[in-house]
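Re: the request from the purification team.
They wanted to know what the chain is likely to look like in 3D before they choose a buffer screen. I agreed to run a prediction and write the result into the notebook, where they can find it.
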Amino acid sequence: MSILSKDSIKELILPHLSVSKKGMQLSENKIIRIVQVILYRLKTGCQWRELPMREFFDEPYTQKSVFHHFNKWSKEGCWQEAWQHIVAENKELLDMSSVQLDGTHTRARGGGGAVAYQGRKSANTSNMLCISDANGILLMASKPISGNRHDSTDFEENMKHIASMAQEMGISLDGLFLNADAGFDNAEVRRVLDIHQIQANIAQNPRSGNAYLERDDYFDELLYQARFVIERSFAWIDGQKALMTRYEKTARNWFSMNMLGFLTILERKIT
């Protein structure tokens, strides 16, 4: 079982995976099978040590070896590169009439980097800021954020990472209308978005009381309705069980697993 066909893996992922120049060289078929096992874990959420190796390999191969390759390709940014390439190659499918910003909070069972206790979920969580197009296609994400921090914390640094991804994909942020909920309604968020020449369309925070009457911040109620497509996108992500609950110890590997999830969702839409 694989959520991507062998042809899709060969076309979309293999060109971006580094190959060791020393020691035993892996065949193309062997690399495809390694990726299939990684995708199996993404879909089912099983632990690395529980991967059904005999279903994918005719010869003995260990779960430890599969994780070694996933971790190696994660360190080298291969999963992010594959994701950015598929978006860049299919930009004509995107609806950039508006983009949607929101944070996704994920329970973290095993601890690790960018993990902290969040009272609202009564659990340790990790968070990422994600941006989708008007159809809910997830495009960019910040680095993982500890769950005890508000979505707007360190917003400038997180937007730098998002803007860097956009640049790698050849997507211009200039002039985009960005929808975000009231949790992002503060002066710092608006200042940072203005630096990137993004038009903020942020719902006013009810905690500000009557103060909004004295503000002239732009807000288009009709445009804001498009924001809810990103909630649907997060439901798609939850269909990948490894992304519904975090077991990855390093923030880097957790980010890479999300990039792989983004890729599989877009591939299905393209197909």
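For the purification team: DSSP finds ten helices and eight strands in the chain.
Please add any questions underneath this entry.
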